[in-house]
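Retro notes (design track)

What went well: tokenization of the new backbones is finally stable.
What didn't: we kept losing track of which sequence belonged to which structure.
Fix going forward: every design gets posted as structure first, then sequence, in one message. First example under the new rule, 131 residues:
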């Protein structure tokens, strides 16, 4: 497996709940898991993310209060956005913002992408996109 040069590692409050969210709701695959450490390495197409349950000896720089990750969102590009969106809607999981088409300017070029935003169980904001 090739590792990305930037792989976010998110502290979560309940590894099983987060594992279910990322795998069952969003379709991430488990690349490997260290159950004794409550740690999971996940991937979705070319996106990679790590989750680890909070523990006192972790790399915690401040008190962890919901929602985690305030001020950051993770953009995850996928090949097929509708199936993920439908899976979320069928399971009655709330969206932060529904599926929409947006236009962005980048170096005088217009980028059009479909996207929706969803929060994971700990409040991390995920922006799922498709160009």
């Amino acid at each position: 497996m090739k590792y990305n040069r930037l792989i976010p590692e998110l502290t979560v409050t309940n590894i099983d709940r987060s594992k279910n969210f990322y795998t069952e709701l969003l379709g991430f695959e488990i690349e490997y898991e260290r159950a004794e450490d409550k740690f999971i390495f996940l991937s979705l197409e070319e996106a990679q993310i790590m989750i680890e349950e909070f523990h006192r000896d972790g790399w915690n720089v401040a008190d962890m209060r919901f929602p985690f990750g305030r001020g950051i969102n993770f953009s995850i590009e996928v090949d097929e956005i509708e199936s993920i969106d439908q899976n979320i809607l069928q399971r009655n999981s709330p969206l932060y913002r529904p599926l929409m088409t947006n236009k962005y300017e980048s170096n005088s070029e217009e980028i059009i992408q479909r996207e929706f935003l969803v929060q994971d169980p700990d409040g991390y904001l995920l922006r799922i996109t498709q160009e």
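Added context from the reviewer: The CA atoms of residues 22 and 28 lie 5 Å apart.
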